[in-house]
Specification:
Helix content: under 10%
Number of helices: 1
Shape: globular
Number of strands: 37
Structural class: mainly beta
Radius of gyration: 20 Å
Strand content: over 45%
CATH class: Mainly Beta
CATH topology: Methylamine Dehydrogenase, Chain H
């Protein structure tokens, strides 16, 4: 969930656990933008390369991936949602084990998206409350045995924990106030960090934890590198962060308010450039994923490829809200039920498939989280299904129905791990 959407939800009344995607009447087409994004560096302003009807191809693989498992919410630091070493179920699977969290005394419980590392599955147990319901004294990060589902440990936080991430021997997460690191094996708290605002996104790596934080009273995102609980450096931009942080090599990316893509040079410890992806300041649905050569961004269905120097490579409308990056292809899903494959080099569409379903006269489509192995795209839908489609042509391999809630998935080995409401399950 993007930070901007989380802000809206947290100021509403009691949060329900079924969040349907926004309906749209847009027609999916592939059109190259006539106007290019505007790129601004710290030293001067310059206009990025214009996208043409025949954009020049550029080589771009998926970039660094974890050696094993699914240790971060989108699989990798680049948020690629791609695990070619995994071999998820190609046929309709059965649950190898299931864990159900107890009902809380107040509010509604749900598990975050799972992450998988070191033979363990890690989830945050979130208690959703409204403005008139008191929050519980503690919420928890859990570690379960990936093979059996046995709980190995749980550690408390004072606020609502975000989806955890694993880097080395640390499990990193954040709540409304602090960033925490717990020991992978024991769950013991190793350190906490108090950012200058709310920690809206974290990206842990062997070099430290990159934290993006915002304050409600200032239109600003502060990006801080944290090591062992201490700030090493900080830089800021005058936008609120609207996505997660994608970090590849020395470049970190996020989309801010007003649809501005921000490129942070983590070696130089400063913002390197900003690029306006869309004119105007209307709110937009955005996501970001990155490779060593480019950031791939969606803004209200348009996919932008922006080189690591801030110059535009191409920009095409494909009607998708979230992306995964494969070997040389982008996979995207939409809230209307579309799955599309797009060439990473030039933005041309390879195939599309429609998996939307009619629910009381409305189209139920995909949520904004997906996972891809070499053969299959896995994604949850707004009508509580988990759908597996072929990476070759988008055809459906299988689907599973759930009782309620959005379905969130992770891949590791031959297993697919999924959370739905307050249930966590392993499928093989």
């Amino acid at each position: 969930m993007s930070p901007s959407r989380r802000r809206v939800l947290e100021t509403s009344a009691l949060l329900t656990s079924s969040l349907a995607g926004c309906l749209s009447t847009r027609e999916p087409t592939t059109v190259v933008d006539e106007s290019s994004p505007e790129s601004t560096t710290a030293q001067s302003e310059s206009t990025a390369t214009e996208a043409t009807e025949s954009p020049s191809p550029f080589p771009c693989g998926h970039g660094p991936l974890p050696d094993a498992g699914w240790p971060l919410p989108e699989g990798s630091l680049g948020r690629t949602s791609y695990a070619p070493s995994a071999n998820g179920p190609s046929e309709k699977p059965s649950a190898a084990w299931t864990v159900t969290a107890p009902e809380p005394e107040r509010g509604e419980a749900r598990f975050s998206r799972p992450v998988v590392a070191a033979g363990r599955v890690f989830v945050s147990q979130q208690i959703l409350v409204g403005t008139e319901v008191e929050r519980p004294d503690a919420q928890y990060v859990h570690a379960f045995d990936a093979a059996t589902g046995d709980r190995l440990w749980r550690s408390p936080l004072s606020g609502t924990p975000r989806t955890p991430s694993v880097s080395g021997d640390a499990v990193v997460t954040s709540d409304d106030e602090l960033v925490y690191a717990f020991d992978v094996t024991s769950g013991e708290k190793r350190w906490s960090f108090d950012p200058p605002g709310r920690a809206d996104a974290v990206a842990p790596s062997p070099d430290g934890v990159l934290v993006a934080s915002t304050r409600a009273d200032v239109d600003e995102t502060v990006v801080t590198l944290v090591k062992d609980g201490d700030a090493e450096w900080s830089t800021s931009v005058p936008y609120w962060i609207d996505t997660g942080l994608a970090w590849v090599g020395s470049m970190a990316y996020f989309v801010g308010t007003q649809s501005v893509l921000v490129g942070v040079d983590t070696d130089a410890e400063s913002v390197k450039w900003t690029t306006d992806l869309r004119p105007g300041d209307e709110p937009a649905v955005s996501s970001v994923a990155a490779t060593p050569c480019a950031a791939f961004v969606t803004v209200d269905g348009t996919v932008h490829a922006v080189r690591s120097d801030g110059e535009s490579a191409w920009s095409n409308y494909h009607g998708v809200d979230d992306l995964a990056i494969g070997e040389d292809v982008l996979y995207g899903v939409s809230d209307l039920g579309d799955v599309r494959a797009v060439a990473a080099a030039d933005g041309t569409q390879r195939w599309e498939a429609d998996h939307g379903t009619d629910v009381d006269g409305h189209t139920a489509g995909f949520d904004d989280e997906l996972a891809v192995d070499g053969a299959t795209v896995f994604a949850g839908t707004t009508d509580s299904r988990l759908v597996a489609t072929s990476t070759a042509d988008g055809s459906e391999r299988w689907s599973l129905d759930f009782d309620s809630e959005s379905v969130r998935v992770a891949l590791a080995g031959d297993a697919l791990y999924a959370t739905c409401g307050r249930r966590l399950a392993a499928y093989r």
